[in-house]
Request: fold
Amino acid sequence: MEPLTEAQRRTLEDLYQRIDERVSPIAGTHAWWPCRKGCDHCCRHLAAPLTITRLEWTYLWEGFQALPPEAQAEIRARVAELEGTQRPYTCPFLDRESGGCRVYAHRPMACRTYGFYVSRGTGNWCHLILGLVEKHGDGDIIWGNQDAMEDTLERLSGSTLSLFEWFATEGC
Ligand code: SF4
Ligand code: SF4
Reply:
């Protein structure tokens, strides 16, 4: 696999930083916000295998390669197990014991925006957040624009494949 160029790395990390700058104040100023270390409900209930762009995959792959060999083998086995099964999927990168993401610093965009960004027409998908927003109100929350982020990434990034397809074509 072609490694990221410095320019690509800068672009992706800038994008991820922009997301972080939008997300952190929301969680940081609302004590009731449920997205915290230990909440792994979304990672355990994926509606479909993660679908990611080449840029994200290459960055994610760096995180995967930095894991100890046993963890890499476990993730590969989980990817193989998941093929042909039905939703909801548990993400193969989830450490099921701790509920943490094994590739947290390298996780793809959707994992960074989920719950904090909204899409035209389909809104926000996390039912935990939706339930709490109903209770506490969202008047002071500036939601991110999911469609704009997806458009940006698509322009930068080329092909988009599911995690299974990336592992099958470039995961060796
Ligand atoms: S998006 Fe929802 S399920 Fe996922 S970490 Fe945040 S609160 Fe938990
Ligand atoms: S890559 Fe990490 S954050 Fe994203 S769904 Fe998988 S375990 Fe969760």
Summary: The chain is about 50% helix and 10% strand. The longest helix spans residues 6-29. The helical segments are 6-29, 41-44, 54-65, 69-82, 109-113, 127-136, 146-157, 163-170.
